[in-house]
Structure formats: C-alpha cells, structure tokens
Amino acid sequence: MPGLVTQIRRMYADIADHGGDFGDGVEHGEFDPFAVAAAPGLAPFERVGAAVAVLCRLMCAIDNGGHAWVAAEYGPRVRELLWAGALDHEPLVRTAAEAFFASEAAFVAALRPVYEGVVRRWAADVASGAAG
C-alpha cells in the first residue's frame, strides 16, 4: 500500500480532476480517515489530508446511501473527531464537518470552500515541493 502522503496527494489530484467533487468516484485512500485524523504525531499535510479524507468518505457514502443513513452510521465518529479537535487544523474542514449535521445541501455547499481553500492550496504546495 502506498504511504499516507502519496495517498493524500492522489486524493487531492482526484478531487481536482473531478472539479472539486468529493463524492463517489474520488480516490480517497486505503486508510481509515477517522482513525488517522485522530492519530498523534502527524505532519500538518497528513493531518489536513486525513481530515479531508473524512469529508470524502462522508460524501461518497451519501452518494451511495443517502444523507440520513450516513448521519446515523458515521455521525458519532464525526462528532468524536469534532469534540477531540481533530478537524480543527483547517477551519474550513471543521465548518464542513459541522454542516454535515445540518443537511446534505449544507454539507455539499460547505465542501466547495474546502476545495478552493484547502485542496487547491495543498495541491499547489505539493506541485511546488513544499508539502509532505
């Protein structure tokens, strides 16, 4: 399995290739983003990437099972990450995770700023060799 940094780079590239879509069809890695997002000792690139992967996992699941099912299935894990501050390293990511609880429409709307302000920025850093 490729390393975490490589998987995150691929995820960012795939989100960009899909025009900022975080859902079904986007490669979001082979790791458990909920576990990794809460793991100690991560570099900033890894921590933010794991948090973005959580959002991808949620959107993919919504695309395949609907918001109500995903909120029931993943809601407790998302609340745990929010409570622990594991999604606080990028305020836009935390805002999107909070929007997940409001509605599917609110969550989707909150993902666009994550794409513009987080994914595209980190993807540019990767391209310049500054990240990871």
Shape: globular
User: How does the major sheet shape up?
Assistant: none
Poorly predicted spans: none
Strand fraction equals under 5%
Distance between the termini: 17 Å
Number of helices: 6
* Share of helical residues: over 70%
One letter per element, helices H and strands E, the order comes to HHHHHH
Q: Report the C-alpha radius of gyration, rounded.
A: 13 Å
Q: Care to count the β-strands?
A: 0
Describe the structure.
It is a single chain. The chain is mainly alpha-helical and 132 residues long. It is built from 6 helices and no strands. The mean pLDDT is 92.
List keywords for this structure.
132 residues; mainly alpha
List the helices and strands and how they pair.
Layout: H1 4-17, H2 33-37, H3 44-65, H4 67-84, H5 91-100, H6 104-128
Helix pairs in contact: 1-3, 1-6, 3-4, 3-5, 3-6, 5-6
Summary, kept brief:
By secondary structure, this protein is mainly α. It has helices spanning 4-17, 33-37, 44-65, 67-84, 91-100, 104-128.
